[in-house]
Specification:
Order of helices and strands: EHEHEEEHEEEH
Structural class: alpha/beta
Number of helices: 4
Strand content: 25-35%
Strand order of the largest sheet: 4-3-2-5-6-7
Protein name: Phosphoribosyltransferase
Distance between the termini: 34 Å
InterPro entries: PRTase-like (IPR029057), PRTase_dom (IPR000836)
Domain Phosphoribosyltransferase: 9-149
CATH topology: Rossmann fold
GO molecular function, one term: glycosyltransferase activity
Keywords: Glycosyltransferase, Transferase
Largest sheet: 6 strands, mixed
CATH class: Alpha Beta
Length: 164
């Protein structure tokens, strides 16, 4: 098995705090944080507390279906955020990893015509990402074991979202 990047809960705490300090240090003061579910939920929550931003939104995007298994293109799943809630806001998009960057690009492009400014914060960014994030804790080309997804689900619900 190829070598992997291992993120523990404790290390995630350090990473999310460092990301928040990077955002604050840049002078960017987001009006809201837009989380890319599911992995971005953890990042957005941690950033929301650290940056004292209470306005958190969620965008559900399906792309990965397993280790190195993905759909051809990322797909936005309902409910899609109302663009009225984003209009003229400074938005910080939060996700766990910019792998190919396709998911981040989809969400950033969705926001671009409506928001005052949009920036991206990720725990990890991979070299092949088509989106260069403004805030990155660590860059790697390895597969990442995240603490929230390194164990199999307690219950498996095959293709529940896309079939809904």
């Amino acid at each position: 098995m190829a070598e992997r990047e291992e993120l523990t809960w404790e290390l995630f705490g350090e990473a999310s705090r460092a990301l928040a300090e990077e955002v604050a240090g840049s002078g960017y003061d987001p009006d809201l944080i837009l989380s890319i579910a599911r992995g971005g939920l953890f990042v957005a929550g941690a950033l929301g507390y650290a940056l004292d931003v209470k306005n958190l939104h969620v965008m559900n995007v399906e792309f990965y279906t397993g280790v190195n298994q993905r759909l051809d293109l990322p797909v936005m799943l309902p409910p899609v955020p109302n663009v009225v809630d984003l209009t003229q806001k400074k938005v910080l998009i939060a996700d766990d990893v910019a792998d190919t960057g396709a998911t981040l690009k989809l969400v950033r492009d969705f926001c671009a015509d409506h928001v005052a400014e949009v920036r991206c914060a990720v725990v990890y960014e991979k070299p092949k990402s088509e989106v260069s994030c403004e805030y990155v804790w660590r860059r790697t080309d390895k597969w990442i074991n995240f603490p929230w997804s390194s164990q199999p689900p307690v219950i498996t619900r095959a293709a529940q979202v896309l079939d809904a």
